[in-house]
Please model this.
Amino acid sequence: MTSFQPADRSSDDDAKPRNWVDRRREKIRAEIERNRRGEYTVPTWVLAVALAAMVGAWLALIFLV
Model:
Protein backbone atom coordinates (compact mmCIF):
# COMPACT_ATOMS: atom_id res chain seq x y z
CA MET A 1 0.00 0.00 0.00
CA THR A 2 1.27 3.47 -0.81
CA SER A 3 1.59 6.07 1.88
CA PHE A 4 0.08 9.50 1.46
CA GLN A 5 2.30 12.47 2.24
CA PRO A 6 0.82 15.96 2.32
CA ALA A 7 2.27 18.54 -0.03
CA ASP A 8 4.90 20.89 1.30
CA ARG A 9 3.01 23.94 2.56
CA SER A 10 6.02 26.17 3.08
CA SER A 11 5.71 27.66 -0.42
CA ASP A 12 2.04 28.56 0.26
CA ASP A 13 3.00 30.17 3.57
CA ASP A 14 5.64 32.31 1.87
CA ALA A 15 3.26 33.46 -0.85
CA LYS A 16 0.51 34.64 1.51
CA PRO A 17 1.35 37.07 4.37
CA ARG A 18 -0.04 35.90 7.70
CA ASN A 19 -0.75 39.09 9.61
CA TRP A 20 -1.29 42.77 9.00
CA VAL A 21 2.39 43.66 9.54
CA ASP A 22 3.46 41.32 6.75
CA ARG A 23 0.68 42.59 4.47
CA ARG A 24 1.72 46.19 5.18
CA ARG A 25 5.37 45.40 4.40
CA GLU A 26 4.35 43.76 1.13
CA LYS A 27 2.26 46.81 0.15
CA ILE A 28 5.16 49.16 0.93
CA ARG A 29 7.60 46.94 -0.97
CA ALA A 30 5.27 46.81 -3.99
CA GLU A 31 4.83 50.61 -3.92
CA ILE A 32 8.60 51.15 -3.84
CA GLU A 33 9.03 48.79 -6.79
CA ARG A 34 6.31 50.63 -8.76
CA ASN A 35 7.97 53.98 -8.02
CA ARG A 36 11.36 52.69 -9.18
CA ARG A 37 9.77 51.55 -12.46
CA GLY A 38 8.40 55.06 -12.99
CA GLU A 39 4.77 54.33 -12.17
CA TYR A 40 4.67 57.06 -9.53
CA THR A 41 1.47 59.11 -9.37
CA VAL A 42 0.81 62.28 -7.39
CA PRO A 43 -2.03 61.90 -4.85
CA THR A 44 -5.27 63.67 -5.74
CA TRP A 45 -5.28 65.79 -2.60
CA VAL A 46 -1.87 67.25 -3.54
CA LEU A 47 -3.17 68.22 -6.98
CA ALA A 48 -6.30 69.76 -5.41
CA VAL A 49 -4.23 71.87 -2.98
CA ALA A 50 -1.94 73.04 -5.79
CA LEU A 51 -4.92 74.04 -7.93
CA ALA A 52 -6.57 75.90 -5.03
CA ALA A 53 -3.32 77.75 -4.31
CA MET A 54 -2.94 78.82 -7.95
CA VAL A 55 -6.55 79.97 -8.24
CA GLY A 56 -6.31 81.80 -4.90
CA ALA A 57 -3.12 83.56 -5.96
CA TRP A 58 -4.68 84.53 -9.30
CA LEU A 59 -7.80 85.93 -7.58
CA ALA A 60 -5.68 87.80 -5.03
CA LEU A 61 -3.66 89.31 -7.85
CA ILE A 62 -6.80 90.47 -9.63
CA PHE A 63 -8.67 91.90 -6.62
CA LEU A 64 -5.78 93.33 -4.60
CA VAL A 65 -3.90 95.06 -7.39
Notes: The chain has a mean pLDDT of 82.
